Request: fold
Amino acid sequence: MLQKIKYLSFFIKGDMMEPLRYLIVACSIGMVFLMLLKMFDMIFPQGKHFHRKKYVWTLILIYAIVFINVGFFSREPGTRTDVSLKLFETWGNSMIAHAYFVENIIMFIPYGILLPIAFKRIRKIWMCVGSACMISCMLEVMQHMTGRGYAQIDDVMTNTIGAAVGYVVWKIFDKLRLVFFKKPWYTN
Reply:
């Protein structure tokens, strides 16, 4: 069992190197975005709530850039045209297939953390997880239409699970912050 976990982590670590390349570009764009927000705040002072929000928005921008690159631009158009509505087909029999399954969960964890911080309406679990499911469905349809990814019900399920995991992480930290600091970490 330990050997299987080592193989699985080896494949996941290898696959995660690709998004790291996108992360460098995304962070650069995020820094420019942050500087523009800072200049905007200097010209038109917005108060301390704006000061906190700009960091969350920068993280969302960085996440979105990496997400779009991984979901679309990491593949040639027209190379993947299949549709699978069979649950757990992605799990497969190989460690590489297992790694893809786990990576889809990992990809949406930041969604479940960042969006409740940024949007008051998404602070309910059903809104966060429901919106993640809708975004995932849209991603799968767009991947199918562009031929840049297999449209799979498994991806929708694993992405939604990832957002739920992220939401639970956010909720735990939100409760801890309320206990120790007597205030939430979001401002709107």
In short: The longest strand covers residues 83-84. The radius of gyration is 18 Å.
